[in-house]
Records
---
Amino acid sequence: MLLLGFVLISGVGCSASDLMDLTVSAKSPVAFNAWQSRFASRASSEERRQFETALQEVRYKIMADKEATGSDPISDALRKKVHERSVREVLQLGVELRLLRLLKEHAALHAVMRQNAMLQTREGDKASEDYLVQFHQKQLARLEKLEAEIEAADRELAPLMDVTQRSLLPTTDGESDKGPLMLRRSKWRA
């Protein structure tokens, strides 16, 4: 009975808010591996999945920006971006990066679809006409899927930003701490 009371008082187990406030230690590969092991022992499988998804988005951005190439340099760049951030901030950064990636893909696909809508086939060329219709349907399905993913990411981002009250993406001239204009709610629909 006394042992059970000690376990409860000592805080074994962690509430979700406690986990969100943990500071990531990623100064070195060893420190980051040790921190991840401690985090994994306290987090649920869903929380671990969310954290890993956020890290993957940071990796994608590093590779897309050609900030680093190769496994070790990418890992080094990733650690620099997450070191001394809270778990909440890492999750938010990952969601913001995913949202930015999806919005760029949406804009590019929408532009291609507008161009493709102007294509015309020769009169009587049923095969080409059928191909264009099928191609348009595939693009439309991808656009709808992207829109659903964008809306899901936006819903995921809202409670994180309610706490941090700012975007974690680097801003450029003319952008506020709310993040790039492209990320602001209701600005992405064509």
---
Amino acid sequence: MKKYLLFLLPLSLLSAEIHFTKTFKAEVDSDMISDNIVIKTSRDNSDDIVTIFEKYNDLFKTSKLIYTKQKEQIMPNYNTNIYSGNLSYNIKSYSFENLNDFIKDLLYLKDEKNLTITIQEPKYILSTKLQEEITHKLRVKAINFSKTYVNKLSNDLNKQCELKDVKIQDVKTTIQDTNIIDLKVDYKMECQ
């Protein structure tokens, strides 16, 4: 009779479920330089502003930089019959020299009165490509850890353990000039 009672016990009483979180971290140096550029002008005619902006847009398009147009805006001031134009770009480069050469070309192009070019202080950033590379390496590290840990757990407990679930959240933070990529991994394992 005792033999039959053992079979009636649910298998869940003989198994253990293990949940834990582990963080994998990498510190990465920035590999790109980024800057924001704003060009402002005012003219009697909106067509003049369009012509000026076309010249600057062409310079951005022919550059060796990665650029994103943030804003191109022409607005009339009805009180003074003058048009104001605002053109802004974000630029990025892997090479400080390319960025510097571009800024020289940009300033050389400035021959109009009533035109200002604002160049913010360049900052070093982490490229998406490098961030994805590092995140991938951390994911592989997290998966390899889970395989090793499941085997170690099986040996230590003298039970058959298996990985049931892995949830990965990746977070990038920048503290001063250091980029930190954290991979927070939630593991769920079962041992029987």
---
Amino acid sequence: MMSDWLEGTKPKYIECIYETAIEFDLEELGIDYDTIDDYYIKYGKLTVTFKDGTTSWYDGDEGETDYKWARYENVLDESWNKVEGLNWWK
């Protein structure tokens, strides 16, 4: 019996993507937003450059990730491409 899948398109992975948040409470961190010149967040760490030229780094409040329901689920082939017709998430 032949498979209905084209070569390399048979589902190999089911991927679940969850959302989570990291919060930075400026008041708790003692930061007045008006004193910020620039900021960026990388690897969950907030880097703030202040108008006076100083730079500081802050860890955020990492909440609990809710693994009950995934935000997205993808059915993927061996090349990690979405399998046509099996993914209803955009």
---
Amino acid sequence: MIKRFFLFIKVFYAVTILLLIAGCSMTIPSTVIYNLYLPNIHAQDTAKQESGAPQLAYELTIIVQSPNYLSQPYIAYRDSQYKVESSKYAKWDESPDKLVGEEFRYKISKMNVFERVNVTSGNMAKSYVLNIYLKRFERVDEGEAAFSECSYDFEISSPDSVRPLYTGSFYKKNKLADKSYLELAKGLSSALDEGIKEVQSHVIKI
């Protein structure tokens, strides 16, 4: 009798666990990965090359710094200036700091100003440096309305200068058609594209 009882308990627990696993697999949504899309070529991208200006015999080092929540891939959103949340099932194909760094690297390398353009976490000797301090890269909800928000400070330094050659800030807030992450990806792509053009306008003067 006791053996049958323990056998019943084992079977009961096994069936319960199987039902829980089946229930979880039915209710947990799949993770969706989003990416940015920026136009391949800007007028600034080829201006130096078309003008016949010589290429600098220097590298450019891009360093992106950000808050912790922008150094992980899960998409951030907020409905208050006092808190930020991350989606559990929607994320970027890379963390925002890496996405931003790579887009800058690609666009500036196409300008043919520098011998090489790298993204790294530390300064390199005898290199121009573009420091980007990423502050916002997220969705902002204001009641029923939703916006994408992209914000960063930047500075460009030369190997020989004590002070930065250029410093600036960029902020762009685009209204979204809805609160979907697809619309957010479109809004942030547009904002970042505009922000890169602004930095390129300084790079081209070096």
